[in-house]
Amino acid sequence: MNKIVVFGACGFIGQHLVKALATVSENQIIAFDRFSDYENTLNNPFVNFKNVKIVPGNFFNRTDVMNVLENTDYVFHLVSSTNPVSSSNDPFIDIDTNIKSSIELFELCVEYNIKKIIFPSSGGTIYGDIDSLQISEEIVPKPRSPYGISKLTIEHYLRYFKHISNLNYIVYRIGNPYGPGQNIFGKQGVIPIFMHKFLLQEPITIYGDGTMIRDYVYIDDLINMIVKSYDKDNQFSEYNLGSGQGHTVNELINSIEKHTGYSVGSKHIDVPLTFVYKSVLDINRFVQEFNIRPTVSLDEGIKRTWQYVKDLK
């Protein structure tokens, strides 16, 4: 029986991850987050899981973090105070919060003899603009946004702590995750943002001409890949996790229109300078080592996600 701490348990990936970890094992799961909307209420996302302990806390407070690391085996670091847009507006936020707090966490993981730390990085931003059909882990990352730079910097610090303290870790470079439970009122993720607009029947905003290409991975596929591999002896330290398929923004819109049964207006704006035009991940390293691959097509994933979103009315 292992003790697993998930920092950032209230986020989109975090909620799905905690539930999956609690379902497939008898391990003790510590769900750590601010829990401002859930603390001491019956509407918390983990109320039905007896092996999940909710711990409200501030990840940027060293004492709060220390309090949950005693006798811990695995640590998932899912906390980020920024997104690609906000980090570009103020690059110092990433340095002062995400990078600094990550280093402090790694120091504590060494002190508390953690078996392995798991860090979901950003496969969509750390590589930059790569002229390749698919981006493999062998390609030298050249991020062009502060968000991608900070994610790659945190990866470098994990290598540093592995070198000096033998801290075991695994990095998942994730594409563009989407699916039920994603915040449709947020500012990150084109699919939930578009679906919110469709729900309100309001015009959508498109960067450029809609031909930007991304690797969209359905949340159930992503969680399955993580949960079935994180505690294994990993041959490599970094793995791309995505669908391995590229789709344009226009394809997304066509699929959403198909499953909603209607169209909304649109306006086109300039693409931010920090955005990459194309990002499709080569997931062969992960598939070959763990024999796990995604199974949900984009169209099926859009269908399932819309079923969730329309019920939010």
How would you sum up this structure, described in words?
- By secondary structure, the protein is of the alpha/beta class.
- The protein folds into two domains: 3-177 and 219-241, NAD(P)-binding Rossmann-like Domain (Rossmann fold, 3-Layer(aba) Sandwich), CATH 3.40.50; 179-214 and 245-310, UDP-galactose 4-epimerase, domain 1 (Alpha-Beta Complex).
- It is built from ten helices and 13 strands.
- Helix 1 links the parallel strand 1 and strand 2 (28-33).
- Helix 2 packs parallel to helix 4.
Ordered list of secondary-structure elements with their pairings:
Elements: E1 3-7, H1 12-24, E2 28-33, E3 52-56, H2 62-69, E4 74-77, H3 84-89, H4 91-111, E5 116-122, H5 146-165, E6 169-174, E7 176-178, H6 190-200, E8 204-207, E9 213-214, E10 216-218, H7 219-227, E11 238-241, E12 247-248, H8 249-260, E13 266-269, H9 284-290, H10 298-310
Parallel strand pairs: 1-2, 1-4, 2-3, 4-5, 5-6, 6-11, 7-10, 8-13
Antiparallel strand pairs: 9-12
What is the end-to-end distance? 41 Å
Strand content: 15-25%
Shape: globular
The percent of residues in helical segments reads 25-40%
Helix and strand run: EHEEHEHHEHEEHEEEHEEHEHH
Unreliable runs, pLDDT <50, ≥5 residues?
A: none
Largest sheet: 7 strands, parallel
Summed up, the domain count is 2
CATH topology of the largest domain: Rossmann fold
Mean pLDDT: 94
Annotation field: number of helices: 10
CATH-scheme architecture of the largest domain: 3-Layer(aba) Sandwich
Structural class: alpha/beta
**CATH homologous superfamily (4th level) name of the largest domain:** NAD(P)-binding Rossmann-like Domain
**Integer-rounded radius of gyration:** 19 Å
Strand order of the largest sheet: 3-2-1-4-5-6-11
Instruction: Tell me the name of the CATH class of the largest domain.
Output: Alpha Beta
DSSP E strands, number = 13
